[in-house]
Design goal:
It is built from two helices and eight strands; from the N terminus they run βαββββαβββ. It is α/β, with parallel strands linked by helices. The chain folds into two domains: 64 residues, Signal recognition particle alu RNA binding heterodimer, srp9/1; 52 residues, Signal recognition particle alu RNA binding heterodimer, srp9/1 (2-Layer Sandwich), CATH 3.30.720. The two termini are 26 Å apart. 27% of the residues are buried. It holds the Pfam family 3-dmu-9_3-mt.
Length: 137
Amino acid sequence: MLVQPYLMFDGRCEEAIEFYRRAVGAETTMLMRFKDNPEPTPPGMVPPGSENKVMHAAMKIGDSVVMATDGGCQQKAAFEGFSLTLTVPTEAEADKRFNALAEGGQVRMPLTKTFFSPRFGMLQDKFGVGWMVIVAH
């Protein structure tokens, strides 16, 4: 069994993919636009003019795959009640990734030493996605 996050960026998916490419080294392994759907898009699913928006994408981040979409393209994405955790091997890597993810976002807990990690911090990126960055022991 496999559980994978599926993030709905509601019109900003392509921008998010590029941001995660720079911030955490995400590699796009699949991207399909609404216009490339082999079946007709159901009426009302996406607003007119959204044909070039992302219907489905997959990004490889380290050993994980995060899936994403533009969804309904309404510019109302809301990411609440969860965070993605990025586990890195070194404090330097934690600093680099945390700072990149925090660009344009909001730091919830600065990177610091804790009883469970030499470096741990929490933030919300510029898309509203929550992240926790931790150095594994």
